[in-house]
Amino acid sequence: MSKIPMSVRGKGERDDRFDNYPKPSIVEFNKLLAPIARMKHCAIVVSMCSQMELLGVSHDVYSLSILINCFFQLGRIDFGFSVLGKMLKLGVEPSVVTFSTLINGLCNQSKISEAVSIFDEMAERGAVRFLRLMEGSDYEPNIIAYNTVIDCLCKDGLLQEALSLLSEMKVKGIRPDIFTYNCLIHANVVTYSTLVDAHCKEGMVSEAEDFVGAMIKRGIELDVATHNALINGHCLQNEMDKARRVFNLMIKKGSAPDIVTYNTMINGYCKAKRLDEAMELFHEISQKGPIPNTVTYSTLVQSMFQLGKVSTACELFRKMLASGQVPDIVTCNFLLDGLCKTGHIEEALELFQVMRNSGLGLDIVPYIILIDGLCKAEQIEVAKELFHQLSDNGLKPNVYTYCVMINGLCKEGLPDEAYRLFGRMGDNDCLPNSCCYNVMIRGFLRNSYTSKATQLLTEMVGKGFSADIFTATLFMDLIVHSNKSILL
């Protein structure tokens, strides 16, 4: 049997000696590549991939993912991304495994920005970007991808970002596994407190208590923040007795509650309509400290209004102002509305003045609330003055502002002035809507301007609007009592 001569070939040149033999499939090569890669013989895998190409064997997504991983293991991120580019050029779609490999490789390198020019952030930022890239490419990240990124973020001390991803996983229906939680657990009180807080806010109080148990087992003392998080969790679940037990235990262990602790407890009691217990805590902090803040007062005043304790709310409100505390704009609007609806116009005006002087940056809402309150309290001149101040304060009345003012003028027996205001709405680029038409028509009817009401009704219908139930009822009453149709 004659010997086959060994021809000398240049590096990278295709070996045609095997052309007459059937080529092994990529599946067979993958069966070899995978265990070799797991044994960390990355250089051998790279060499084998080169031989595969010389034999004319086409890569698939699995073999290219293995190759990317090996380049990353060898510290050659640039080669890894070259393979990714090759995948895209060949039309091979990256899989979740591919992206997970890329994420893991990026997170294991300390100088990503130097290796890959497209990344100008630190490794963990790149990892999160790849998660977003996976989503944008119709490849939903799986538990492996999320765990890889969460682990990276935790190792770099970015716990809040890791917790955000944990929440994202749950929203998408991906259940965290033991590895996910192992990544999150670090033996320090700040980390545990953050975990307790995150789980309590999601209603997972029992899981939060498990973390507290783990803290105790590790000999980590619960700080104020941890207690506050657990108390808040119980309050959110309307478990006020459990919240009180944690509160009392906190004091017993020598951890002094801060204003956040008290505000959380007070808010919980108010939401549970247990105002007396809320006030007990308020008197406690008033005597012992810490000093009640805006949140403390606002929470109690809102609860008092909701429970119909108007005089008590006004008294506490005055105490709040006397202490130099000013509520935020949302709370102010709530209080202003409560005062107006209960007829406490003087207190409402006082609050409004405080709001203007405090530099809160008032929008149209408090003006509407107060104008409406003044109109209902038959103080139409003050309401008109406030309405005209809008432009002086850089505000434009909206449709609802006009409706409130027109309604107030009509109820005061001033339909002509109301109609002039109705006609001037366009001057402020504010065209009448169905509500405005109905309010104006009802104003005409109540002041016996039947002809004008009928004309305006025709105009309203022509603009595509229709009479509401209140306007239609007034017309029906008029027809019944006059024994004839006013629409004929």
From TrEMBL:
SUPFAM superfamilies: HCP-like. This is Pentacotripeptide-repeat region of PRORP domain-containing protein. Keywords: Repeat. InterPro entries: PPR_rpt, TPR-like_helical_dom_sf. The keyword Protein transport does not apply. NCBIfam families: PPR. Belongs to the PPR family. P subfamily. The keyword Repeat applies. PPR repeats lie at residues 60-94, 95-129, 142-176, 188-222, 223-257, 258-292, 293-327, 328-362, 363-397, 398-432, 433-467.
